[in-house]
């Protein structure tokens, strides 16, 4: 049986993915300008978070899903760095929080990796 904290992580990604559909404008305003079709990318990333969150809950898909989460978080780093580029890009979030999000991404990658070999 998988540890309870695996399901906490799964729930976190599922809820985050659902938020892409509930509040898409919140995500679109932090998208780097150089990326095309922000709305589509917001919806696709929401689907990815939901699918990967569900995938870590099952033995058959856990390893693939954890590596998918790690890859997704790596891609999301571009958004975090973009948000540091200026006041408009920061969406009003204080710079110290934006800076703290960078190491948080690496912690989340490690957390996902922890479950790859359960």
What would you say this structure looks like, in words?
With 118 residues, the chain is mainly alpha-helical. It has 5 helices and no strands. Helix 1 (4-22) packs antiparallel against helix 3, helix 3 packs antiparallel against helix 4 (59-83) and helix 4 (59-83) runs antiparallel to helix 5. It is globular and about 45 Å long. Pfam families: MauE. It comes from [Muricauda] lutisoli. InterPro entries: Methylamine_util_MauE. Keywords: Membrane, Transmembrane, Transmembrane helix.
Descriptive tags:
118 residues, mainly alpha, 5 helices, 74% helix, Methylamine_util_MauE, membrane, DoxX family membrane protein, transmembrane
Shape by Cα distribution: globular
Largest sheet: none
Number of strands: 0
What is the typical, i.e. mean, pLDDT?
95
Distance from N terminus to C terminus (CA atoms, Å) equals 9 Å
The chain-level structural class is mainly alpha
Query: What is the share of helical residues?
Result: over 70%
Query: What value does the Rg take, in angstroms?
Result: 15 Å
The count of helical stretches stands at 5
Order of helices and strands: HHHHH
Low-pLDDT stretches are none
Strand content: under 5%
